[in-house]
């Protein structure tokens, strides 16, 4: 089989560092090359947070790389292998080089009032918008039509795989990643006789887009996965299902519903 160029991303927990050192030796012994600059495959070692870091580190090479996650604790939503299965993983890597599964991403554009250039991001899990100092007031547009005026703590927009993360904790639905959509979920919205919102999560198709328009004078924090952008003069945040996807090496990619059951329900026996 053709040699693969492999990059490793791992956290500094002792167990992850030890697994990374062992994996480096196994990869080289099997005829593959360690290449942190231009890899064919990126292997993260740690947990879902480490995989998110790897995604953002190599986001500029989405068309060229596949990702694979090794977890050193409990089963993650993006990690398929345990750190004691490295030999088996490398064997699979060498014999099944073309198999992959892809997941939708979130395309995000932050627009400003003061003439600054737009900022463009991709998210694998979710993005949120919150006001720093007071109740957030925002106009939510879906495909250029005003849908609602939101008042509350904020809004969250998630991908299908990200629907199991923060989105789920605030009452959002769990979406299968084969559904190319994003989900908008309100965070502690105000609903009374004066102020009304839909109050339910919205599943929005890849053909639609959402723009959250923010009032002048406010200071907001926008999160993109584990990163945050805290600035004044944000005019709006635009969301759509990204045209690009993340690809995972699917040598032993676990069924999504199995992951959900293991994460939230556990053993049924």
List keywords for this structure.
NADP, eleven-stranded antiparallel sheet, 269 residues, five-stranded parallel sheet, kinase, elongated, single chain, transferase, alpha+beta
> Shape, please?
elongated
Would you tell me the overall average pLDDT? Answer: 91
Radius of gyration: 20 Å
Provide the structure class.
Answer: alpha+beta
Q: Helices and strands, in N-to-C order?
A: EHEEHEEHEEEEEHEEEEEEH
Ranges where pLDDT stays below 50 over 5 or more residues in a row are none
Description of the structure:
There is one protein chain. By secondary structure, the protein is α+β, with helices and mostly antiparallel strands. Strands 6, 7, 8, 9, 10, 11, 12, 13, 14, 15 and 16 form an eleven-stranded antiparallel beta sheet that branches. It has a five-stranded parallel beta sheet with strand order 2-1-3-4-5, sandwiched between helices. The protein contains five helices and 16 strands. The protein is elongated, with a radius of gyration of 20 Å. A hairpin with a 2-residue loop joins strand 9 (136-142) and strand 10 (145-158). It has helices at residues 14-29, 48-57, 86-95, 166-169, 256-264; strands at 5-10, 33-34, 41-46, 66-71, 81-82, 100-112, 119-123, 126-131, 136-142, 145-158, 181-189, 202-205, 209-213, 219-224, 227-232, 234-249. The longest helix is centred in the first third of the chain and has 16 residues, at 14-29.
């Amino acid at each position: 089989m053709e040699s693969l160029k492999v990059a490793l991303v791992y956290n500094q927990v002792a167990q992850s560092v030890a697994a990374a050192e062992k994996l480096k030796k196994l990869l080289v012994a099997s005829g593959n090359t360690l290449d942190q600059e231009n890899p064919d495959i990126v292997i993260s070692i740690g947990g879902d947070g480490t995989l998110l870091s790897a995604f953002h580190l190599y986001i500029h090479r989405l068309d060229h790389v596949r990702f694979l996650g090794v977890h050193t604790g409990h089963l993650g939503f993006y990690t398929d292998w345990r750190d004691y299965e490295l030999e088996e993983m490398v064997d699979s890597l060498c014999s099944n080089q073309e198999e992959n599964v892809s997941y939708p991403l979130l395309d995000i554009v932050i627009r400003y009032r003061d003439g600054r250039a737009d900022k463009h991001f991709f998210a694998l899990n979710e993005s949120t918008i919150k006001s720093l100092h007071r109740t957030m007031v925002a106009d939510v547009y879906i495909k250029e039509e005003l849908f609602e005026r939101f008042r509350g703590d904020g809004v969250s927009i998630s991908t299908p795989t990200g629907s199991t993360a923060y989105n789920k904790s605030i009452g959002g639905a769990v979406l299968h990643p084969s559904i190319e959509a994003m989900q908008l979920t309100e965070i502690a919205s105000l609903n009374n006789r004066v102020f009304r919102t839909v109050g339910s999560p919205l599943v929005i198709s890849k053909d639609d887009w959402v723009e959250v328009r923010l009032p002048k004078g406010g200071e907001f924090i926008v999160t993109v996965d584990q990163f945050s952008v805290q600035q004044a003069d944000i005019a709006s945040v635009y969301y759509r299902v990204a045209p690009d996807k993340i690809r995972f090496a699917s040598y032993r990619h676990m069924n999504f519903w199995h992951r959900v059951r293991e994460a939230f329900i556990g053993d049924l026996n």
